[in-house]
């Protein structure tokens, strides 16, 4: 069995340019789960107890999951490590915070210390982007499911912890996460050789070398990924300064005339 035939990940074999738009993932388990969730989220009687903002957040997360795991983007991630990294970045930077907000009342019951959650999210991201663990995930559906679940769950806990903690601790956790994300992206970008065996041959039919694909994936993780965390830090810092300014205005004594 040659190298190209050995890697058959959850999204199927790596597609060629002429057929990838036809490659929809119609996994019955996934489609059934998404159909049930769609009925819950869009049926008036089922979603009536959820606030409008949380409902919009959960619906947006549903749409993104559909795009990532059902649309041809799923098959494209079998060909390109870059697309797989985009999947993972969308999972931890977009879907996870949407879920953390949408499921807030339920998630608030879970213990989520900020530094424990930050460490768990970082470890999950680094472990699954190690070449050995990544290769295992792309050669076994159960391991692939474990990868996706652990990335998503640890990221949801991270964003839940940020919602609960003080602004100072949230900013510190985001700074640490930005640094470690940038470091991992830099290591992947400046590697002198391809490291991810599932993509040694999968990009060639697209006219892209595996090293070029890997370098673009590292840059995607390094720049846009770090920037997303920095944007979250700026938003939290802005809200913190506004709150402090409002508090100061309320405590200023009014001079009598």
* Secondary-structure class: mainly alpha
Kindly report the average pLDDT value.
89
Largest beta-sheet characterization: none
What fraction of the residues are assigned to beta strands by DSSP?
A: under 5%
- Principal-axis shape equals globular
Total of DSSP H or I helical runs spanning 4+ residues: 11
Report on this structure:
There is one protein chain. With 257 residues, this protein is mainly α. Helices cover 70% and strands 0% of the residues. The protein contains eleven helices and no strands.
Which secondary structure elements does this structure contain, and how are they paired or packed?
Layout: H1 3-6, H2 28-42, H3 52-69, H4 73-79, H5 81-102, H6 104-107, H7 114-128, H8 131-137, H9 141-164, H10 167-189, H11 210-251
Task: State the gist of this model.
The chain is 70% helix and 0% strand.
List keywords for this structure.
single chain; mainly alpha; 70% helix; 257 residues; disordered N terminus
């Amino acid at each position: 069995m040659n190298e190209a035939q050995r890697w058959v990940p959850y999204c199927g074999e790596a597609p060629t340019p002429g057929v990838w738009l036809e490659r929809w993932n119609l996994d019955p388990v996934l489609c059934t789960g998404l159909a049930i969730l769609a009925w819950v989220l869009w049926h008036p009687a089922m979603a009536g107890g959820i606030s409008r903002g949380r409902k919009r957040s959960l619906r947006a997360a549903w749409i993104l999951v559909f795009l990532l795991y059902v649309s041809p983007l799923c098959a494209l991630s079998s060909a390109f490590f870059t697309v797989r990294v985009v999947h993972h970045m969308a999972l931890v930077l977009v879907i996870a915070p949407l879920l953390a907000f949408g499921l807030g009342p339920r998630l608030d019951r879970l213990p989520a210390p900020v530094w424990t959650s930050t460490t768990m999210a970082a470890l999950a991201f680094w472990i699954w982007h190690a070449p050995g663990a990544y290769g295992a995930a792309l050669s076994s559906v159960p391991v692939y499911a474990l990868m996706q679940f652990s990335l998503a769950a640890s990221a949801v806990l991270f964003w839940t912890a940020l919602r609960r903690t003080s602004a100072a601790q949230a900013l510190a956790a985001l700074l640490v996460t930005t640094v470690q994300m940038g470091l991992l992206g830099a290591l992947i970008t400046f590697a002198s050789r391809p490291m991810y065996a599932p993509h040694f041959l999968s990009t060639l039919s697209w006219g892209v070398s595996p090293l070029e694909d890997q370098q673009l994936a590292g840059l995607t993780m390094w720049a846009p990924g770090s920037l997303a965390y920095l944007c979250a830090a700026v938003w939290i810092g802005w809200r913190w300064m506004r709150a402090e300014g409002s508090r100061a205005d309320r405590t200023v004594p009014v001079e009598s005339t």
